[in-house]
Amino acid sequence: MARERILGIDASRTTLAQPTGVERYARAVVRALIPLAEAEGVRLRLYFRDPPPPGLFPRSPWVEHRILPFPRLWTHLRLSGEMLRHPPAALFVPAHVIPLYHPPSAVTVHDLGYRYFPRTHPLFQRLYLDLSTRWSATVARVVFADSQATMMDLVRFYRIRPEKIVVAYPGYDPPPIPTDPEPILRRFGIQRPYVISVGTIHPRKNFSLILRIIARRMAGGWAGQVVIVGRPGWPDPVFERLRRDPIWSGRLILTGYVDDESRGALLSQAEAFLLPSLYEGFGFPVLEAQACGVPVLCTPNGSLREVAGEGALLLPPDDPDPWVEALDRLARDPGFRAELIARGHANRKRFSWEACARTIWGSLREWLGPP
After folding, report:
1. Are residues 213 and 341 in the same domain?
2. What is the largest CA-CA distance in the chain?
3. Distance between the two ends of the chain, CA-based, in angstroms?
4. Would you say residue 176 lies in a domain?
5. Residue 360 is part of which domain span?
């Protein structure tokens, strides 16, 4: 008797109350896979550690939720046990690690930044990331990579066979822009003009370069603010030292984590979006900024050259002068600014969750057997 066509998905990372890039990816990919599975008569079995909030995923007779509460080592103990007792035909892990016991499995690898900047991660976290990524990429039948850069890193660091890796560019969700953004700006004490960046405060985000850039603009007479949207992460001593300078009193706004509407409001009103990262696995904020009609300036590091395309100015991560010159030109040349914004809009249309899901589904469906 043929095994029922069931695709299991580790959805444990979709229930976080404050999702960031990887968690948003998991939510969006699962949503986009549901109609593809329905169309081919494949059941999706979603595994959760915590009960999902109502409406997280569309209701469908083809989608089953299995809630598997467990305090620690959920993946390798509880999910492994479920795979042993009630195995699906295949398992997809979009945002975590493949369990020790597993059916034919696929995993998405988002980021190998810890290999480039090991000192920016606590020792235990770095060892866990290294071991879990190596394990998942080795035992998976297919590894989905967010970018060509991540694919090459998998080959370089873990000797994964290139033919086993499929690049599936993520999509993005344009943050909603409120009709009246003023109340949101006032809530954070933000006044125009300002430049903005989005991301967890972490040394590899290189936010200290933004302070060096804007300090030079301020010395030249620019009277604006720097807005950084994101929760605190690993301490960045250089950024912390620079921001203690009195010149940043009232000029540097750290909003912490914000909801989608607030992020859309803050992006849409900015003079420019800056992302001077030393490494990015993908770089969702670049596409969000382009969708909000903001000129984007970023480094070419990691996947950013692929993601930003022709819709951003690519600048070095260690020299503030080209950034100052680019911002000054954007301020004095409306045509140049409009052209960069238009190129950003054209670029972000290359990415969609539907296209990402179709690429992933094309690999997974081969293991599920005929209808």
Report:
1. yes
2. 77
3. 14
4. no
5. 6-171+352-367
* Same-domain status, 156 and 234: no
For 150, the enclosing helix (H) or strand (E) is helix 148-158
Q: Where are the alpha helices (DSSP H) in 293-352?
A: 304-308, 320-332, 334-348
Same domain, 197 and 161: no
pLDDT tens for 154-213 read 999 999 999 999 999 999 999 999 999 999 999 999 999 999 999 998 888 999 999 999
Written as one string, the DSSP assignment of 240-275 is HHHHTSGGGTTTEEEEES--HHHHHHHHHT-SEEEE
Name the CA radius of gyration of the chain, rounded. 22
Token pair for 26: 């998991």
- Beta strands at 272-275 and 296-298: parallel, antiparallel or unpaired: parallel
CATH of the domain at 86: 3.40.50.2000
Q: Is residue 110 part of a domain?
A: yes
Which residue pairs from 76-84 have beta carbons closer than 8 angstroms and sit at least 24 positions apart in sequence?
Answer: 76/100, 78/49, 79/10, 79/12, 79/47, 82/47, 83/8
Residue spans of the chain under pLDDT 70: 1-3, 369-371
* Residues found in the chain: 371
Query: Closest Cα partner for 225 from 268, 185, 180?
Result: 185
Residue 125 CB burial class (10 angstroms; 0-12, 13-18, ≥19): exposed
Q: Is residue 203 part of a domain?
A: yes
Number of domains in the chain: 2
Cis, bond preceding 19 (omega within 30 deg of 0)? no
What are the tokens at 108?
A: 């998405």
Same domain, residue pair 150 and 251: no
Q: Which residues contact residue 141 at a Cβ distance below 8 angstroms, ignoring those fewer than 6 apart?
A: 104, 105, 106, 164, 367
How does pLDDT run across 343-366, given as a tens digit for each residue? 999 999 999 999 999 999 999 988
